[in-house]
Amino acid sequence: MATKPKSSAGGSLLELVLIVVVALGLALGIQAFLVKPYRIPSESMVPTLEVGQRVLVNRIGARFTDPSVGDVVVFHPPAGAEEANECGGGPPPPSQVCAEPTEERADVNFIKRVVAGPGDRLAVRGGHVILNGKRQKEPFTEPCGGGEACDLPREIKVPADHYFMMGDNRGSSDDSRFWGPVPRKWIIGEAFATYWPPKRIGLL
To answer: Which domains can be identified in the chain, with CATH numbers?
Structure first.
């Protein structure tokens, strides 16, 4: 009677290594092109997102669909946004948000909420967005607290192919009010769910 050949330990080890390599490749591919985890680094999105909270970002959707007002997105801010509040290379104009885009982008990632899109008219009163002449319903925001960025009543128009970003913590957020609208091509993707800590797991 013929006997079945015994599988070698080396063959099993090779198979395991191949499985691990394929799994890692799939994980890296998913992160690079489909979904990427992101850690919240600051208080700018409180109360929606706390410092240290983790979210999942849909990268593939940003390639095919434009952001909508209300979306929470991860994006590259203008160069210098993480160090100083400059509007198109200079100080923001008085009594209005910054309408001047900056040509160069930073390598860092920010997470904010889209509050206006291309061609929209925008002003800020009491920390609330006035979009195309109408005050927006924003139950997700933290009260502004009367800082310099809370009242910017002079209306601006968002340039074509640009989006205006603001943090939900309106009194403690460095955002487009100071460094201007962001080009569509700098947007990485929409944050659609939070997965850490466990008590805050859910969709955004």
So the answer is: 37-203 (2.10.109.10)
